[in-house]
Structures are given as structure tokens and as C-alpha cells.
Amino acid sequence: MLEGLTPTSILLDEKELNSAQNTLAKNQLPTTRMEAWKYTRVAKLGKTNYTSSEETVTSIDSYRIANDATTFVFVNGHFSEELSSDEIPAGVSISPLSACMEGEIGSTNLILEGEIFNALNTAFLTDGIMIDIEAKANVEKPIQIIHVLKGEANLSNFKTIINAGDFSKAAVIQGFFAEDADRAFANVTSEISVGTNAFLTVDKVQYEAENTSHISTEQVSQGKDSTFTINTITLNGGLVRNNLNIEVNGENCETNLNGAYLLKGKQHVDNHSVVDHRVPNCNSNELYKGVIDDKATAVFNGKVFVRKDAQKINAFQSNGNVLMTDDASVNSKPELEIYADDVKCSHGSTTGQLDEEAVFYLRARGLSEKSARQLMVSAFIGDVLEKIENEDVLNFTHSLLKSRFGWDFE
Amino acid sequence: MANYTENELAKDLENQEYKFGFTSDIEADTIPKGLNEDVIRLISSKKEEPEWLLEYRLNAFRTWCEMIEPEWAHVHYTKPNFQDIAYYSAPNQTKKYESWDDVDPEMKETMAKLGISLEEQKRLTGVAVDFVMDSVSVATSFKAKLAELGIIFCSFSEAVQDHPELVRANMGTVVPHTDNFYAALNSAVFTDGSFCYIPKGVRCPMELSTYFRINQGGTGQFERTLVVADEGSYVSYLEGCTAPQRDENQLHAAVVELIAKDNAEIKYSTVQNWYPGDKNGVGGIFNFVTKRGICGTNSKISWTQVETGSAVTWKYPSCILKGDYSTGEFYSVAVTNNYQQADTGTKMIHLGKGTKSTIISKGISAGKSQNSYRGLVQIHKNAKNARNFSQCDSLLMTDECGAHTFPYIECKNSSAKIEHEATTSKIGEDQIFYCLQRGISEEKAIGLIVNGYCKEVLNQLPMEFAVEAQKLLTISLEGSVG
Description:
heterodimer; A: alpha/beta; 2 domains; 10-stranded mixed beta sheet; 9-stranded mixed beta sheet; globular; B: alpha/beta; 6-stranded parallel beta barrel
């Protein structure tokens, strides 16, 4: 798997690099016997000989999620300067990691130490982006990062570092796409730190190809009084695994996690999240909904930790799945681990199919069977989509739904 | 229980045995500590078992040797030393106290609160008194009635001798000896247990309870229960007792197998109140149980459990819904206090069409305890129109305890409907205030609220049992007002 790769030239922290190499040397890829990977097989990743070659994309028009945004484009993880924006709005500094000086890139969170995909990412890091949002800055234009996978068996190891300063407000959009890609693999990590009273929204749109793989890990740390929202929309990709680790380190925080996944073919999507409430007086909401068609499989594993003495926590977690065929399957594992008593925590998980009576109702009113079903599916997923505040992201999602699933509803 | 620990109890027992000259008996009926094939052969020969059962035991032992003790449960404890256990001891050592005055006063008090008659209290604590004869006669008369209907209800060893064909055909079919570490251990060394067979179309007229098997000695350390309900029959089976039970054995690894043939129904109720250790978490029983039932067409298995005892509980009564239109139910109340740890739940495996399952689990954590629900709902590809409803509520009584939920939901059929819900909360101050205002003391108010909270489960218990279980809940939570 690693032969064709060149070790990273990014000036990372030396200790971290050593630890990553150690992890890679000592560990194998996870198997389904490991609890965290129980429902997701990654063995085929180990059998592919990846390279990391530079490719060029002529236009990003079809990948542009928001039109009025500060855009950065990476092809196979390599920075594409000519397609990226020249202007960087006031209050922010953005630079590719390849342009960073020694010592500029801080040490990553130790939580991921020993995690093999994180080690792979570190040791063979292609490039990344560092976004520093100044304190009190209100960045109106969203910052948009477009990732394109291209070519055969290309591996993109990418790292996003976001530091949202105190009292700042910003939105980041990450789009993942594939163009003529065969067996490509995006291994992405993000380190996000949200300062005191900061607002940060991350919208992720995953629309790669049927035979690509995608593993992403977001490591988020929230300061006091901050609000962090992440919306993950997964519409295409052969194997997709999203790890979201959120540490709530300050009081009065709000954390929102929303996800929608619509799968068909033989897709496999696994959403893993951990919300770790370490301090009192916080709220977290998690809503994941999915529609699984054909032979696709979906996995949801959400975990809420409430540490000892983290009182007055309201944590809600909800997962809904609709299975469209008998070959589709879903594995859901909503977990609560609670060590404090004055809390309100709940989780719910449902799996079912579209209500036949409701379909009948719509058909009786002149809708075709197909549009009746579509209408119901869009209403089901609509709960998640309506949480997306950025209209450009929403419109883009609708256009993808139309092109992939033939939806006509807005 | 503060200054009377299990060790002291064990010491008392030891002294008594010497005092009353039981030594010779014990030597005859106890084998040295440790576990190897010879020990298993010895157990088997002492019980005069047929060859196939010995083979079964040895097979299980060989499998066990290659297994690793599981660590995935959300519990922490010092692993038992399996070579430091005597795997066979005489079943007639029930005589624990020579006179009623020797019995721990706290235990007496608890039993008085449970409303157990003095006679029965004495029997439960194992005080040697002659009234036991009465119970035996009661039991015998029941047995006669059962025999009339063709129902077999006896100890496992008796069943092996008297009905070997029934035992051989059914044993290990639901929980094979390869199932898990503790099931393998049990299969290798089980000493006794219960066997029950209900013939075709018979509705068992009374609740069958291990309680009636008094003359067959106390519960063993490695107990094995096999209940077979033949086509169209019905049985309600009770296990355990609400009265506190002390036992010198630290490790309990039981196996329970239920077989409900077509159109049969088995209702299995358990009240578990083993010694939970003292207030500082010293001592207490490790309860690692494998319970599973298999359903034929149109049949039903219902598990109801009230778990209040044991230092560590590791127990997942499960249903394999193999037959079409079969039903599985699981109702559970698990209470943990002080340093107790419980990791309990169920597995509902839907294989047949139109299978239904209901899971109601109520966890109550107090003191510094940890209480986990761990469950699996699995809908297989052919389980058309399967239906599951799960509800797991947790109640936290103090800020030092923990309540956890680990549900696994796996669905491979698009016509299945699965719902899972879990909540975690504490008793509202307004609820307590309301009770206090109406002259109900805080302790009583908590008992009231907790019983209301568990009502859905307690309602499933047979009547007399339910009354005792309610009192037991209140007692278990005594002094835990948070």
C-alpha cells in the first residue's frame, strides 16, 4: 500500500512525524474485529498500491459550491494556485501547509496518536491548509476548499487546520469530488479549534465516485461560550468513513452535528461521532438521516460522553434510516456514556421504510408512484437539509440530488 | 453490612464445619481446587453421568482452554483465578448457621421488611430447622400434580439419569459449548441445575419455581437450566428469590437454555439478589450468565428480570426468533448501588418472517455504581415485516454514578421497523417536593417514584413476586438519596 508513496515534505513537528512512522510500522489496518471498525471493511485499501501524482483540472465550475466565496482548490491533495482565489478577506490568514515555515504547524492532538489512518496522513502528508481567523473577525464570505481526486489509485493525504479566534465568526465549506478517478483514496484530517464565544460552521459535501474511498477525521476542541456546527452531506463515494471527535472544553457551548446520506449502488457510508462533554452547562444536538437504496450499507455510530461533574448537559442524538430494498442494510449504534446525574440526555434510532399509506394518499392525489416516493424521501431528508444555513450549499445539494437521483423537488 | 463482610461469613462457615465435625463428609464430597481434565472426569463420575455427557464436558473444556476471557463489557474487576476454585462440592452443605441468633441482624431486618415469614427466613439463611419438612411435602404434592400432566420438573442430574434422551437432544442446542468463555466453562464443569419439560399442548397450571426444589440443595455455582416447551404448551418459570442470598462462591457462571417449539410460550422471570459486596465495594458475587431462548413458529419467549444484587453482573438474556411470527420480549430492571457494576441487556435475533420483539429496560444507578444497557437487535435478510421496539431508560440517583447505553441495531430487511429510544435523567426535585408536601418522607417518596418508573417491568412479574420485587427495589436504594 505504501511503496509508491513519498514521505511528506511538509515541515511537521518532528516528534509527531516519528510517532506516525512508528504507528505505521507497528500496526495493521483495522479489521471488523475491532469495535470501532465493526461494520466497515477497509482491507481493500491495503491491497491497492497508491501513488500521489500531481494532476491538473481545467475548470472547477461544476464543483463550485458557493459562488461568492474565498476558494482554494487541491487536486489529489496538491495545491492548485491558478484555480484558487487570489484575494483573502480581512481578518483571516490562509495558506497551504506547503508554504508554512518550520515550527508554524503546531502539534496535533494526542488523541489520534496510534490511529493508523491519522499516522498515514501525517507520514505521507501531501499538503494541507491552515486557516487562522483573527479574534473578533466576522468573515462574511465563506471559505471554500475544493478537493478533486483524479487519476488512477491516487492517494491524497490532506490536513485542514482551522483556528477560530475568540469572538470570531466564520463558515468553512469543504467539497470532495472526483474526476476520472479510479480507486482513488482521500485520507483527510482536520484539526479545528474554536475560541471563546466564536461561531464556526463547517459544511461538508462528499460527492466522489462509486469506486473511491474517503476517510476523514475531524478533531474539534471547543472553548467557552462557543458554537460549532458541522453538516455532512454524503451523496457519492464507494467507501466513506467520517470520524467526528468533538471535545467540549468550555462551559455554555453549543454543538450541532447534522448529517444526511443518500446511498445507492454498492456504496458504504460510516458516520462515527464522539461528543465529549467535559464541562457543565452545554448543549449538543445530533441529527443523522439516511436513505439506503440498492445494495448500499450505512453505519451510524454516535457516542455522547458526559464526564463526571459535567452537570446540566442537554445532549440529544437522533438517527433515522429508510431502507429502500432488501439488499440494503443499516447498522446503527447510538451510545450514551454518562457519569453525571443532573443531565438530560436521550437518543433515538429508527429504521423502517416509507409509509405505504402515505404513498397511497399521494398517489390518490395524482402523483406517480415515483414522485410520491421522492416527495416522501425528500421530506424525510429535509429535516437535516433545513439545518443548513448557507443557501448556496443547499442549492448545490439539491442540484446534486437532481443529477444523481433525479429529484425534482426543491 | 458495614462490619460483617463476606470473608467473615466464610470464616464463620469454616468454623462451624469444624465445630460440628462435618470434616469427614466434606473430604469425601469435595475435590481439590484447580481445573483440568481429571477434575472433569471426577465430576462426571461422581454424578454417574453417561459417556456422551463426559465427552461433552471434555469438549467444552478443550474449547475453553483456547478462549480468552472477554473484556468488552463496561465493567472493571479483578479476574477470578480459575485454578483457585473447587469445582465440585457436596450439595448438602446448606447448613450455614447453627442457630437463628447467629444470623446477621441486618439480613434479618431486610427479610422482615420484605415480609418473609420467620419460618421461611430461617430456611433461606440456611438455619438447620425441621420445618423444612413441611416445604418438602408441599413440593412433593406439587410434583405429583405435575407428573399427572406429564410435566417433568427436576434437577439437571436427575434428568440426566431419568430422561437422558431429552437432555441429550436439547442440551447445548441454544447455547453451544463454543458460545463464549463462561458458557464454555459452565459446559465443562456444571454441577447441577434444573430441567423442565412441558409436553405437547399442556398448559402448566402453576408457576414453576426453583424455590420448590428445596430438598435438592442450594443453587450451585455453575448452574445449568434447560426448559423445553413442546408444541402448543405454556409454562411460567421463576428463578431466584427476593431474599438476600449469601454465597461463599465468588464466581457464578450459569447457563440457561429455553426452547419454545411451535405455538409454545415460555415466560421466564428472574429476581437476582446475590450479595453485592459491602459499602466500600469489597467482596460480592461476580454473576456472568448466558441465557438464551429459541423460538419456533408462532411461539413466544418472554424474559423478565429484576437485578439488584451481585458486585459485577454480565448478563444478556436473548431470543433467537427463528420461527415465523414468533415473539421475543425482554423486561428488565437493573439496580446498582455503592460500587456495583452491571452490564446487562438483550439480543433479539430476527430470522423468521413477521417476528416481533419488545425491549423495555430500566436502569437505576445509585452510589458510585456503573449501570450499562447493551443490546443487539438484528434483522436478518429473510425476516420480512419484523418489528422491534426498544426503550432503555436510565435513572441516576447521585452525581458519582454512571449510566450507559450501548445499543447495536443491525437491519438487513427493508420491510422491518425498528425503533429505539433511550433517555437518561434523575428524579426531579419537584417530584420529591410534591411528595414531601403531602407528608411522604423523602425515602418513601423515592421508593414511590422508582416503583412508578419500573412499573412497566414489574407488571410482567407474577403477582406475589411483583410485590416482593417492589419492596426489594426500595430496600436496595435505601440510603442512596442524592
